[in-house]
Amino acid sequence: VVAVLLAALRARDGASEALYRFAAPKLRRQTLDATTFARILENGRYAPLLGHRSSALGDLAQLGDSARQAVTVEAESGTVPYLFALLRGADGVWRLSGISRPDALE
């Protein structure tokens, strides 16, 4: 799931639709639609994901039906770390439950 999302984010075209399609139900309810995802992606914290030059998957920590995947992207602004949170649904499919930047103050 994370690799598919990173490919969509790198290509830019269809990125918000891909995020929405792979979003866990709670995240879908919070963001409402792909247009909202697009606005969120344009936020300074997430902007380096769009059109990034390259990405690398880091540590994956899984506990039951939740997982966290560390990701580093090389963007125009430099090297940026992210943490992709995932949840496995009753159907066995992993879905995105959030993206955070460990280096950014919340």
Show the helix and strand layout.
Blueprint: H1 2-11, H2 15-21, H3 25-31, H4 34-41, E1 54-63, E2 66-75, E3 78-88, E4 94-100
Helix pairs in contact: 1-2, 2-4
Q: What key phrases describe this protein's structure?
A:
106 residues, alpha+beta, four-stranded antiparallel sheet, 4 helices, 30% helix, globular
Give a verbal description of the structure.
The protein has 106 residues and is α+β, with helices and mostly antiparallel strands. Strands 1-2-3-4 form a 4-stranded antiparallel sheet. The protein is built from 4 helices and 4 strands; from the N terminus they run H-H-H-H-E-E-E-E. Helix content is 30%, strand content 36%.
Order of helices and strands: HHHHEEEE
Radius of gyration, CA atoms, in whole angstroms: 13 Å
Gap from first CA to last CA: 25 Å
The residue ranges in which pLDDT falls below 50 over 5 or more consecutive positions are none
- What is the helical fraction, as a range of percent? 25-40%
